[in-house]
Amino acid sequence: MADWSQLPYDIIQMIAIRLDAVEDFLAFSAVCSSWRSFYMTKKWTPGPQVPWLMLSDNKNSNMRSFFSLYRDKVYELELPEACGRRCWGSSDGWLVTIGSDLEIHLLNAFTRDQIRLPAASTFQFLFNVAVDWYQLIEKAILMRKPSQSTASKEDFLIVAIYGPLRQLAFTKPGYASWITVEESFQYRIMDVACLNDQIFAISATGTLLVVDINSHLPVIEHIAAPPHEWARDQIFLVESFGELLMIYQNVYVGNLNHTGDPVQFDVFKFDFGAREWTQLMDLGDRAIFLGDNISMSVSAANLINIRGNSIYFIGSKVEHWWRYDVHFVDRDSGVYNMASRIVEPFYFGADYPSYYSCPVWLTPTLCYNC
User: Fold this and answer.
1) Are the C-beta atoms of residues 28 and 37 closer than 8 Å to each other?
2) Per-residue pLDDT for 151 more than 60?
3) CA–CA distances in Å: residue 25 to residues 10, 35, 150, 210
4) Are strands 73-78 and 63-68 parallel, antiparallel or unpaired?
5) Strands laid side by side in the 167-171 sheet
6) Which of 137, 195, 198, 290 is the most buried (most CB within 10 A)?
7) pLDDT category, 353, cuts 50, 70, 90?
8) How far apart are the C-alpha atoms of 313 and 261, rounded to whole Å?
9) 198 has which bridge partners?
């Protein structure tokens, strides 16, 4: 029987550089100690990866479960730093975490590298309203400008939508506090995206805004009105292959006048020249991933188990499930087919999330120096 641990370093390297998916590299690292050593020291920069679904927290356990849609498999990773904390995923392999101590960190789920961010106590609130710690932040989004794709961790920008007024704040590693965008409370920010080194936000009414954080006082500028004045339950903003998309999500539960699927999505692309939205009826081979973290978009071409022209979504309000009809739970996550306008289920894990631990999308990366 071959002793894989005795292979020359050059041969091990030749095997590794032919791997395309993070899932394969994790399997590579489990072969033997010498392969694991290569895995721990190599700066590996693969192409675009399919987001993993980080499942709910198991109380009193240091392990976290991650479901790979690409491999249709659950991976168990030791991650005690995330135990008992609410998490938000990113497209860079990092999580933003908060606990009952109100301490906030960046945590790399695959290297366990951790960076302390300013505490939640440095958020500015217009009114003294009591909020439970796990509801303090509505969304936490890690951004890195395309021009900084090889920059250090100190160049990360973390944006938070927080509080009952959905105010907007940002920070960077090394900052002493979160910096609030003062005007944001007027708009009730629903989502944020970065495109061409600019930060865009969408309000609760569907108004598109651009956020300038480079001036002495961060400011918001109105860019465009919403495409239609119809009701929407949730609004997402997505950077997708150089385009800015806005996605309306509506959930029709208990609505006897609605005959279609209980969950519906409408997608719009922004035309920067005309400063207006155009509705898209087809996403091509794109698969879009929505949740309460950063929204992500990948090309499904040549990817197994990933459907193009589809929207993968997970709920962000799991702590309020008791308010909904029991049938709503099965509609809080799924794959929405843009052509058929029907939702199909996908694996969500054996247990429902606990009150503080929402499932999140996280794009795996093994780049140890990014």
Assistant:
1) no
2) no
3) 16, 10, 21, 39
4) antiparallel
5) 137-143, 157-162, 167-171, 179-181
6) 290
7) very low
8) 15
9) 195
State how far the Cα of 64 lies from the Cα of 66, in Å rounded to an integer.
7
Residue with tokens 């990092």: 94
CB atoms inside a 10 Å sphere around CB 274 = 9
* Mean pLDDT taken over the chain: 81
For the record, the structure tokens of 41 come out as: 């020291």
Residue 236: CB partners within 8 Å, gap ≥ 6?
190, 191, 202, 246, 247, 249, 290, 295
State the Cα–Cα distance between residues 180 and 56, nearest whole angstrom: 30
Q: Which long-range contacts (CB under 8 A, 24 or more apart) does 3-8 make?
A: 4/31, 4/32, 4/35, 5/31, 5/32, 5/33, 5/34, 5/35, 7/34
Angstrom distance (rounded) from CA 208 to CA 222: 6
Tokens found for residue 55? 């499942």
What amino acid occupies position 7?
A: L
Reduced to 3 states (helix: H, G, I; strand: E, B; else coil), residue 117 is strand
**Which residue's entry shows tokens 């400011």?**
219
In this predicted structure, the answer to whether residue 276 has a pLDDT above a threshold of 80 is yes
What are the structure tokens assigned to 204, written together? 């609760």
For 148, the token pair is: 């900084």
233, two tokens: 């339950």
